[in-house]
Amino acid sequence: PTGAALSSALFLHRRRRRRSEVIPSSTTTLLPVNPSAFVRINPSQLRRRPIAAAYGGPVVQDACATALVVGGAYALVSTFDNLTRRNIIEQNLSRKLVHILSGLLFLASWPIFSTSAGARYFASLVPSLNCLRLVLNGLSFTTDEGLTKSVSRLGKPEELLKGPLYYVLVLILCAILFWRESPVGMISLAMMCGGDGIADIMGRRFGSVKIPYNPEKSLAGSISMFLFGFLVSIGMLYYFVALGYIQLEWVPTVERVALVAFVATLVESLPNRIVDDNISVPLASMVSSFLVFGY
Questions:
Q1: What is the mean pLDDT of each run of 10 residues along the chain (295 residues)?
Q2: What's the pTM value of the predicted model, to 2 decimals?
Q3: Cβ atoms of residues 122 and 63 within 8 Å
């Protein structure tokens, strides 16, 4: 009996020993030994990528975005041309609405481009194509009455080589130099498109009281430029902050934007027959924005 008990105990001991050797070896093969084998996911990487980016990379995404924005720009000008032809809105109002909307919609389209280094150059193709159209029509190589009536004061082709041409050159400059990483380009376009565009509309309707040092400019126009330029600038900055392209502290940002809006409004109100507003306003906005933001 004692021998049987010893044999049974020895058998159970060997069985337990085998089981303890088998189980750990089988379980350890299921888990990674090196902690670096675990994949860490950044929450920002969970943001959905556009379909073009998922299937073709940044070049395809940027090409599709460029085509989309070019089509939108052409549709915008064509829409206001049709409204003007049908006498639904007057030519002056049509011109200013195109001035306001085309630049702001171009600025708002920047996030649909990829994060690649060449995205800004794809985006700049949109105003570059419009620049080519303006030059060809301004030099009378081609004739586009709809374009001429939509963006010129008197409907003359040679006008396309002045204010409208400067306008698209500023769009190209802001896209290439500042892009989505700096508030300077965003504020400059907001002041040129939103501020200066509204100033003309409000000045023509409620501009009976003139500025003492410039009878061609009205108090209503200047106040409107400051208010709308400031609000549009803040709105665009919030838009890009919300999408994660820039980071700002809002209290000093509001103060800085108000200062930039004041400087741009002051420059626009000065007597000036030499430099077009589409040059002086964005240039003043760029310089003052760069000085107060530093980048």
A1: 55 59 47 50 49 70 97 91 87 90 97 96 96 94 83 86 95 97 97 94 92 93 97 98 96 98 96 90 97 91
A2: 0.79
A3: yes
